[in-house]
Amino acid sequence: MNGEINYNELVEKALMEVVRESLRRAAKDGLVGQQHFYITFQTTFPGVDIPDHLKERYRDEMTIVMQHQFWNLTVDDQKFSLELSFNHQRETLVIPFDAISAFADPSVQFGLQFDLNASDELDAENAEILEEETNETSKDEPAAEEQKAGEVITLDAFRKK
Questions:
Q1: Using one digit for the tens of pLDDT, what is the confidence trace for 92-120?
Q2: Residue 129: which domain range?
Q3: Cα R_g (the chain), whole angstroms
Q4: Phi, psi at 44, each rounded to 5°
Q5: Does the CA dihedral 29-12-144-87 come out positive or negative?
Q6: pLDDT of residue 118
Q7: How far is the CA of 153 from the CAs of 13, 42, 96, in angstroms?
Q8: Quick count: other Cβ atoms within 10 Å of Cβ 105?
Q9: Any bridge partners for residue 65, and if so which?
Q10: CATH number at residue 91
Q11: I need a surface site. Which of 72, 80, 97, 103 has the fewest CB within 10 A?
Q12: Sign of CA dihedral 95, 36, 109, 74
């Protein structure tokens, strides 16, 4: 690295801290009123631990909704875990923060999008190698349409091309 400050990386880290702190507060105090979270993550990301039937259904990406029925939410610096009900059965999900591609709280029209390839792009940029990648989103994701209701902040406009 040439010593330059990488502002894109700093902003991504700061915005992910918003997600961490939101989840910490939900773990401590619960969610108030109509507040609820949509969290989209890559199901194949290293460290993601979800039941096999969910991996089969959501092969690339999954969005979970945290509102009234979630249990045992725990948050650390690298990941969070919680129990959600699927077909009337509680299932435990473990999700590293680095696997998150979007976070939203539609009750206050707030949303964030993360570039999961940011560190790869930065490494390639530093080595003066540029690669184009396309991200696929799950076609069978029911919450994706609802997630668009909030304002989404995307960092792509600030990235070097």
A1: 999 999 999 999 999 999 999 998 775 54
A2: 7-158
A3: 16
A4: -95, 0
A5: negative
A6: 55
A7: 14, 19, 21
A8: 18
A9: 38
A10: 2.30.30.220
A11: 72
A12: negative
Which pTM does this prediction carry?
0.72
Tell whether 1 is covered by a domain.
no
| 1: its two tokens | 């690295």
Q: By C-alpha distance, which of 76, 152, 159 is closest to 124?
A: 159
Number of domains in the chain: 1
Contact 50, 63 (CB under 8 A): no
DSSP symbols for 127-148: TT----------TT-TTHHHHT
Altogether, the residues listed in the chain come to a count of 161
**Strand-pair category, 61-66 with 37-42:** antiparallel
Q: Which residue type sits at 27? A: A
Terminal Cα distance for the chain, rounded:
18
Q: Nearest-CA neighbor of 105 among 40, 153, 41, 35?
A: 35
For 139-161, what is the mean pLDDT?
A: 46
DSSP code of residue 86: E
Domain assignment present for residue 2? The answer is no
Which amino acid, 139? K
Please state, as a whole number, how many other Cβ atoms lie within 10 Å of the Cβ of residue 25.
14
Confidence of residue 1 (pLDDT cuts 50, 70, 90): low
